[in-house]
Amino acid sequence: MGEPVTTGAAPGTPSTATAPTGTAGAAGTAGAPGPAAGPRPRFVALREVDPSVVEDIRYAGSRNFTGAVVDGYEEPVCLLARPVAEALRRAQREVLRAGYSLKVYDCYRPQRAVDRFVRWAGDAADQSTKAEFYPEVDKARLIPEGYIAARSGHSRGSTVDVTLVRLPARREVDMGTRFDFFGSLSHTDDPRVSGAVRENRQVLKRVLGAQGFVNLPVEWWHFTYRPEAYPDAYFDVPVAVASVRP
Fold first, then answer.
1. What pLDDT score does 27 carry?
2. How many CB atoms are closer than 10 A to CB 189?
3. Cα(158)–Cα(228) distance, rounded to whole angstroms?
4. Fewer CB within 10 Å, N or C, the chain?
């Protein structure tokens, strides 16, 4: 969950503060001020732009590092700024020709969800997902080492967490780690990654890079479309189709 920005606030409002982008919350600093008043984002549901992209929105269910549905995820839907959704559609056309599909784990992420990540990281008693998601990192180190942060680029609607699946079975290709694995093995170019796993990561990076997406080097699944539609905003509207309706 690390990225080159940072991860509450009144629903539907963005912050004008800037920050770096990063991991489970997006890189930044815990304790950053909440979003300020502002307009609602003009997002679209990815399924309305390209329904062929597989959606597996992990924070809308319990299959994530918190072990529970995350605050603000009212529906398992991918919401994005329209240019991002259209760029994913172009990338999807490319991978479909090779017998694959894109699969998104997370798209727009409300500030209240990022706040929940910070609270989870501070709960030393809850170690229920350690074996799966952070076996080699002490939970107390997740914030200091940048795995969890107070701000996230996902809250701006131009960042996606994505992988490849093989069609027709929709089986995920081997990327070396699970999504949201907190450890250096998740670094896109970690020297321990070789062979088919390295090639799978590079294919994803090349295909998305050709459409304007920039990979976060510490997370093979994390990509931000540039230029961003809302470069200085952190929104907090819920993840639900109603949030993108007029």
1. 36
2. 13
3. 6
4. C
Tokens 């694995």 found at: 181
The identity of residue 196, as a single letter, is A
Query: Are the C-beta atoms of residues 144 and 118 closer than 8 Å to each other?
Result: no
Confidence of residue 40 (pLDDT cuts 50, 70, 90): confident
Which amino acid does the sequence have at 220?
W
Q: Which tokens is 102 given?
A: 């894109």
Predicted TM-score of the model (pTM): 0.86
DSSP string, 174-222: --SS-TT--SGGGSTT-TT--HHHHHHHHHHHHHHHTTTEEE-TT-TTE
3-state secondary structure of 225: strand
Determine the Cα–Cα distance for residues 167 and 185; give it in Å rounded to an integer: 26
Nearest to 34 by CA among 130, 112, 86, 97: 112
Q: Of 228, 174, 209, nearest to 88 (Cα)?
A: 209
pLDDT in the model for residue 86: 98
Pair 223, 4: CB distance under 8 Å: no
Neighbours of 94 (CB within 10 A): 16
Closest CA to 180 of 23, 8, 72, 19: 23
Active site residues per annotation: 219
Q: Decide which of 51 and 31 is more confident.
A: 51
pLDDT tens for 41-56 read 899 999 999 999 999 9
- Residue 171, H or E segment: strand 171-172
Between CA 188 and CA 195 the distance in angstroms is 13
Contact call for residues 75 and 113 (beta carbons, < 8 A): no
